[in-house]
């Protein structure tokens, strides 16, 4: 009898907790994407009823927030000794990898903004890094918003390439077909750029775009650091 009870106890699912719910939710996001996350699919993964999940999370919106909080909490910040542009380059690459691993995360950030604590930490660290390089607080905040809006959009744009099944048409094929159908003499911009767009590797495209963004930020830093030197009065000869 004792042996049968012990065997039955081993088959029971682990005691449900909020931490276990969030952990399972993050795994589901990694496997299926944030849009597919629901209380029912999570309950099925945990081997419990949806009502058991509701005891730890009130609704799906709350579940999404907890999952996003946990995912963003895995971001490892670059070394503080790096200059701002190098620091942002490393951070952008890490956020990109995280976003591609958790589809739908970038859509959430674009729609909702930095609403969870871990995203606010990223905002704070970024603004402080830029301010430390001479950028005023207000401008540093604006640079953060511009940079991370671009980053989220760039990662979101790459998602179809990462999830498309073999044998399916490449992403944006309708765009390419529509652009190439127009007469080249009337649309020379399209005629010269679309072939390069079609042939561009998405990873290389990301790095090129990242370079453009960081070049602009470096210019703002240079302007701010140059301004005090221009304002210094010339010393009079003794």
TrEMBL record:
| One BP term from GO | negative regulation of DNA-templated transcription
Q: Which residues bind DNA?
A: 38-57
Q: Which SUPFAM superfamilies match?
A: Homeodomain-like, Tetracyclin repressor-like, C-terminal domain
Q: Which GO terms describe its molecular function?
A: DNA-binding transcription factor activity; transcription cis-regulatory region binding
Give the organism the record lists.
Corallococcus sicarius
Keyword set, alphabetical order: DNA-binding, Transcription, Transcription regulation
Name the UniProt record assigns to this protein: TetR/AcrR family transcriptional regulator
User: Where is the HTH tetR-type domain positioned along the sequence?
Assistant: 15-75
């Amino acid at each position: 009898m004792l042996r049968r009870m012990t065997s039955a106890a081993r088959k029971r699912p682990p005691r449900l907790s909020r931490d276990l719910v969030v952990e399972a939710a993050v795994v589901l996001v990694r496997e299926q994407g944030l849009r597919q996350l629901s209380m029912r699919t999570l309950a099925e993964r945990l081997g419990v009823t949806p009502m058991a999940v509701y005891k730890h999370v009130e609704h799906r919106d709350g579940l999404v927030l907890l999952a996003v909080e946990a995912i963003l909490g895995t971001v490892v910040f670059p070394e503080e000794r790096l200059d701002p542009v190098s620091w942002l380059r490393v951070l952008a690459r890490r956020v990109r990898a995280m976003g591609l691993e958790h589809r739908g995360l970038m859509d959430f950030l674009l729609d909702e903004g930095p609403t969870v604590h871990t995203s606010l930490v990223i905002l704070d660290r970024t603004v402080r890094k830029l301010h430390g390089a001479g950028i005023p607080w207000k401008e540093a905040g604006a640079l953060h918003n511009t940079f991370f809006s671009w980053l989220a959009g760039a990662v979101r744009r790459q998602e179809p390439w990462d999830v498309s099944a073999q044998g399916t048409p490449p992403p944006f094929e309708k765009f390419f077909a529509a652009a190439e159908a127009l007469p080249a003499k009337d649309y020379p911009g399209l005629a010269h750029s679309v072939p390069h767009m079609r042939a561009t590797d998405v990873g290389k495209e990301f790095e090129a775009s990242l370079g453009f963004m960081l070049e602009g930020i470096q210019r703002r830093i240079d302007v701010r650091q140059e301004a005090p030197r221009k304002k210094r009065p010339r010393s009079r000869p003794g």
